[in-house]
Specification:
By secondary structure, the protein is mainly α. About 50% of the residues lie in helices and about 5% in strands. The protein contains 14 helices and 3 strands. InterPro entries: CB, DNA_brk_join_enz, Integrase-like_cat_sf, Integrase_catalytic, Integrase_recombinase_N, Phage_int_M, Phage_Integrase.
Amino acid sequence: MTFRNAADAYVAAHGSAWRNSKHRDQWTSTLSTYAYPVLGSLDVSRIESAHVLRVLEPIWIEKTETATRLRGRVERVLDWATAREFRTGPNPARWRGHLDKLLANPAQLRRVVHHKALAVDAMPAFMGRLKNAEGLGARALEFAILTAARSGEVRGALWAEIDMDEAVWTVPAERMKAGKEHRVPLSKAALAVLQSQRPGHRDTAVFRAPSGGPVSDMTLSAVLRRMGEDAVPHGFRSTFRDWIAERTTYPNELAELALAHTIGNKVEAAYRRGDMIAKRRQLMEDWAAFIRFGT
């Protein structure tokens, strides 16, 4: 049983429980790129710590997040091989009590990278320019800002997810980072952006590229480059969060719900079962008023 065969068997056994195909693709991609050149053809019974280190050490510092995920995947594949009795002994990819003695703590290596964002006070003037900008990318970016959504959620939005009468956009769990359905109250300004788009079949993208599929991430970024702004689409979520903290009295939990952030406190998460959409609706109307008129 080679490592590659064991990895294929592990994915076949567990892949159906993963929330989307992207997770499967990430597994395959990272193993193919980094693990298979060293481990792929090795019998799982012969894999030792030295082999695992040959995979991890070249990327441990420069690509820490990728390396830590890769380590976990190698560990799970080898655990599967042990459970299937293709190998015996301790797992050479385990972290606690083993690799943590040989590699630097990834938490100390990670550098926080802040997405470039516009200042809160710059938003009204920027939105005035954006509203006058032409093109599908400009409308998608405008909608992303008005909803404080991630660009991927906006680009993947389908007409079936939009309820114009109730003014709600329901993003399905499989397209959310936290894997949980997220309802977005749509302000009048956000509805106006949707009304500017030509409605299509329920299964078609709201912001549909000429090719027929959703617009690319580069399309939104290109809008900012053409406007001469040193910012990225995701940065507007930070601006939205800063506006709530600095200019409003809305509670922190409402901001976190609007941004669809995962609740770290398990007790708080257990008690917070609603999504406070009525209160969030007023929040999004206030946000739209501020970024359009500065009030």
